[in-house]
Amino acid sequence: MDKNQACYLCKGCGLGEALDFDNLEEVLGESGVSEVKTHDALCSPDGVALIQADVDGGVNAVLIGACSSRVKTDEFNFGSQVIVERASLREQALMCSEAEYEGEETAGEDRQMLAADYLRMSAVKLAKSNVPVPFKLELEPETALMVVGGGVAGINAALAGAKAGVQVYLVEKEAALGGFLGKMAKLAPETPPYQELEDTGLEELVAQVEADGKIKVYTGNTVDKTAGAPGNFTVTLSGGDTFRCGAIVQATGWLPYEPEKLADELAYGSNPGIITNVDMEAKAKAGELGGLGAVAFIQCAGSRDQNHLPYCSAVCCTVSLKQAMMVKEANPEAAVYVIYKDIRTPGQSEEVYREAQRKGVVFIRRDEDYPKISESGGKLAIETMDMTLNDTVEIDELDMVVLATGLKPNNPKVVDAPLVALGMDQEAAKKLAAESKAACDSWSVLNLQYRQGPNLPTLKYAYPDSHFICFPYETRRTGIYTAGTVRRPMRVSQAVEDATGAALKAIQAAHAAAEGVAVHPRSGDMSFPEFAMQRCTQCKRCTEECPFGAINEDEKANPLPNPTRCRRCGVCMGACPERIISFKNYSVDMIGSMIKSIEVPEEDEEKPRVIILACENDALPAIDMAARKGHKWSPYIRFIPVRCLGSVNLVWIADALSSGIDGVMLFGCRHGEDYQCHFIKGSELANVRMSKISETLDRLVLESDRVRVEEISFNEVDRVPEIIAEFMETIEEVGPNPYKGF
Amino acid sequence: MGQSILVVGGGMSGVSAALEAAEAGYDVVLVEKNPYLGGRVAQLHQYFPKLCPPYCGLEINFKRIKSNPRIKLYTMSEVTGIEGEPGNYKVTINQLPRYVNERCTACGKCADAVEATIPSSFDYGLGQIKAAYLPHELAYPYRYVIDPSIVETEDGAKAKEACPYDAVVLDDAPKETIEEAGAIVWAAGWSPYDASKVEYYNFNSSPDIITNVQMERLAAAGGPTGGKIVKLSNGEAPKKVAFIQCAGSRDVNHLPFCSTICCLASLKQATYVREQLKDAEVTIYFIDIRAMDRNEDFYTKVKADEKISFVKSKIGLIEPGENGVLVLNGENTTTGERFKAEHDLVVLATGMQPNTDLSKIPADMVYDEYGFVQNAEGIFGAGTVRRPGEVHVSVQDGTSAALKAIQVVAGR
A131 at the B interface (CB within 8 A)? Predict the structure, then answer.
């Protein structure tokens, strides 16, 4: 684009008194920005009008030297065709630096140099930025959704999408819709006053699906192949049908935990009277509960157990209460026992617990040990610890013992290496990755034609999510969302909500693909990575390291990018040793040039320079906050925001050190099992890459102490000055960078 | 595309509903009662089970809001009237004066000039703040507020005089606006159950009896103690901390339902104590520990700490002991023993009261006996007004409600 640039400097918030603006104008002039205007309060309507008038007059690249880019965003937004670059003079030059040092007079000078460097960097960034042009798919973008799984979640996702006006393909492997809902006799109470068992409502749901012209149902089908990317998936079903869709909801539900694995602990298989909650539901549905005189339910049968399922399946307590109530309904005289560790009936289901107690169900709290089940005289007997009596009790003459077994996600476990993200050592990680590959090779839900494998990557258990607190729908494959019990154990009413939400996420993803913009977390971002293929060496790093599996490979190992799968984190850009990947407004050259634009004083001036590449999602806000809170730190620090630490290319470190910068720090998010990186693996990859930086440093004959990675959480505001102070001490010990002046 | 969707409540479910609808291409009006977005989660120190700061995710959401022109935001506003029918609502919004306009740069000079202080509602009354204040250090919108109590005083005049940017507007007045919307998402959230109603815990008898929400503020770096967990009676570090679960919950005299999050919140807060105070002992008095799904892993981890013990007991009384000590009376349901246990800091795990129980939606809606709202055609509850739940459920529910709203307005 033809750039017509101008710079606006704000003298408000104390900047006017603290900085020499004539000098700053000079610096900008040297950096190629000759049009500079100042204002006493640039964010005021007057100030904004000043800029707007110039924009109306043809300025299309605006450098604003004022406050942090995190504030006053509405004021300094001049439309998508005007590039705005913000130099954070207020937070990063003024607030964090001392006005005067005790006994010395150089504070003003240091602060001035700080501000000048930020403007130099911003000028370079502006010069190297271009307005992104949204990526357009070659074919007409497809908005239809595919929903895989015809249980309660899948049916509701399909209905929700269709009601919003979208075409839906609903794929179910069985001959009929319904999933586990079709196997249920009744539902636990879900509507006020939460005391009556409810019908499953499946027939009504199926009738709605059948009556909806926007839903095409493929029963008796699985997915053979899913190729393409959001906005343009091509699906081939096992029955041979094919269709295009824009986004996908995987609602494949759950699998019962295998009761055979409980043969030792709970005598499963030794007596036909010992059954699972799934078997019990079938009996209830078949109307076979009438003859039962005494039944015991054993909760957490294999759940909350490190040898089986370590997690809680969330629904088994309510299911047993429901089944206990069904036994009582069939025979009010029946003796019904529930042997539990904790009764977990959250929310309004507490009323179900009360109702079961009113109906005479007996609750026995056990300890960690499983009750002993034995056979006597054709009946069953249980010996269990009763924590309330603090004694062992025996219950005999039981017709049936129901094991409340848990839920496993109906999805193969897929974990990828390097698995530092799971807090594992590399050997264990490789082993797990090999196992998961084997599992995937034998079983896949979507059969994605992705270079990184056919399934959704999973976390610790086989649940295919990522940021399960703040952004529960996010999987690691763009445009593919999971819903219902495949995502997390949940009861029917919650699965309905979950499916409705997942349908919206899918509609949104298809919409974003059509518009050529990113989805979460850089929603609306129009930039995307472009590959200068003639310089590619087929090293595969980008295709392997992309956290979202966005890049495929041809048979010669050339990367085949899929921009609509991309989340714009720049991990590929950080990975590429040939530096061939760049965005219109973010590139290796841009950041490298910014680094090189920093003015490095001669060694004898004793003013070291340190750059901090800071994650703009978490570290940058923490830095802002620290400055506003009044923390001060060394004026020799220069922050450079990055999209994600994973986008940091090692060449930047070399650029910095070879131009005389004394030290480089990387501020990123927590990684490991409880990672906070919004791009999942970015911060982890940065750590892995930096562990290999010694090679570069050796080549330059430099000390490894000069480079450090720090994890910083959003709220660790007070650590910012501490970390910096400590690093500056290290740099002082190591001494000046010998490359100064070269 | 069609009509607007109006979302009431800027907490986790409301923000999710607003963003998810806007990012699917629909216009949204978001109405928040507080001067900032984020709701109750903005007041949390960390989330369970990852022990990560809520602002990490909120920052992303705020960034999404800032960059999305489809969202029109009202802060300090409440919906006072709804007229019309699905597809065609006229919603009356009453906005309270902030006395600070958009020229504010958050320089803080007004706060410096003002002398009067008010109790910090953000800190659940635990601290005092200036009557010209930034709601909290991460607030979005990042703009000061002047408390109405000083507007007509000398302090008000001082604030106006101190502002270099002409941002203080002392004659600001309430504004009534009518917005048209095709569908409404009601995500007004919850309030902590009033602990003083549980009389036998004598909540007001000692500053060392606090609630779980107050504990979050004590642990937060931006809180009244700068993140130090102390006894508010004397500023010293507590040595024996008690958490009383189901304080007014699962109790037909108070909140008959289970608030779902209090067990995990206490487990999490036990880690706050143990992280800061290496010698402190923690006791959790409980009926059932409800650590659902993968949160069980967190429970397993907390249980492994030898200084955190679990006693199955419903505490029947808190009474003052000697030297400010608090004596908990209970019966250990495992051993049958009656006991008196001394603690120097007691945290009441109070539950979630739906805000729709405290303040009804101005439309013809159906509620359950606890005040949780049932969906109606065109007006959809989201988050903790429908049932108590964790953050991820609020996000799920907000997203789901957004699609229900879209179904009403799509194609109109």
Answer: no
User: In this structure, are A401 and A283 located in the same domain?
Assistant: yes
Interface test with A, best of B16, B19, B23 (most A CBs within 10 A): B23
CB contact under 8 A, A713 and B293: no
Question: Is residue A317 domain-shared with residue A366, that is, in the same domain?
Answer: yes
Select from B45, B48, B56 the residue whose CB has the most chain A CBs within 10 Å, as the one to mutate to test that interface.
B56
**Tokens 């445009």, residue?**
A479
A168 lies in some domain: yes
Query: How far does chain B reach from its first CA to its final CA, in angstroms?
Result: 8
ipTM for the predicted complex comes to: 0.96
List beta partners, residue A205. none
Give chain B positions within 8 Å (CB) of A71: 106, 142
CATH assignment at residue A78: 3.40.50
CATH code assigned at A566: 3.30.70.20
Domain ranges of chain B: 5-96+174-191+353-409, 109-162, 194-350
Task: Tell me the per-residue pLDDT of A603-650, one tens digit each, with 9 for 90 and over.
Answer: 999 999 999 999 999 999 999 999 999 999 999 999 999 999 999 999
Residue A500: list chain B partners with CB under 8 A: 399-400, 403-404
Same domain, A291 and A390: yes
CATH number assigned to the domain covering B194-350? 3.50.50.60
What stretch of H or E contains B61?
Answer: helix B55-66
Quote the CA–CA distance of A231 and A413 in Å, as a whole number: 27
What is the structure's pLDDT at B138?
A: 87
Residues A597, A457 share a domain: no
The hierarchical CATH code for the domain B5-96+174-191+353-409 is 3.50.50.60
Could you report the per-residue pLDDT of A658-713, keeping only the tens digit for each? 999 999 999 999 988 888 999 999 998 998 888 888 777 887 788 889 999 999 99
Residue A421, pLDDT > 80, answer: no
CB atoms closer than 10 angstroms to residue B198: 22
Question: Which residues from B are below 8 Å from A503, CB to CB?
Answer: 403
pLDDT attached to residue B7:
98
- How many CA atoms, within 13 angstroms, populate the side-chain half-sphere of residue B386? 28
Side-chain half-sphere exposure of B258, counting CA atoms within 13 A: 25
Q: Is A479 contained in some domain?
A: yes
Helix segments in A81-176, DSSP class H: 89, 107-128, 152-163
Measure CB to CB from residue A310 to each of B55, B296, B336 and give the nearest one.
Answer: B296
Q: Give this prediction's pTM.
A: 0.96
Distance CA A386, CA A365 (A): 6
Report the residue of chain B nearest A191, measured CA to CA.
B368
- Structure letter (DSSP) for residue A40: S
Q: Does residue B193 surpass a pLDDT of 90?
A: yes
Domain that holds residue A358: 259-407
Q: Would the CB atoms of A351 and B52 count as touching at under 8 Å?
A: no
Chain A residue numbers touching B246 (CB-CB < 8 A): none
- Report how far residue B53's alpha carbon sits from residue B37's, in angstroms, rounded to the nearest whole number: 16
Q: What DSSP letter does each residue of A197-249 carry, written as one string?
A: -B---HHHHHHHHHH-TTEEEEET--EEEEEEETTEEEEEETTS-EEEESEEE
Asked which of A205-209, A463-467, A519-523 is least confident by mean pLDDT, the reply is: A463-467
* Separation CA A412–CA A425 (nearest Å): 22
pLDDT category at A93 given cuts 50, 70, 90 is very high
Contact partners, residue A613, CB within 8 Å, separation at least 6: A591, A640, A642, A645, A648, A652, A664, A665, A666, A667
* pLDDT band at A443; cut points 50, 70, 90: confident
What is the number of structural domains in chain A?
Answer: 5
CA distance B130 to B113: 9
Distance CA A622, CA A720 (A): 7
Cα(A113)–Cα(A18) distance, rounded to whole angstroms?
A: 12
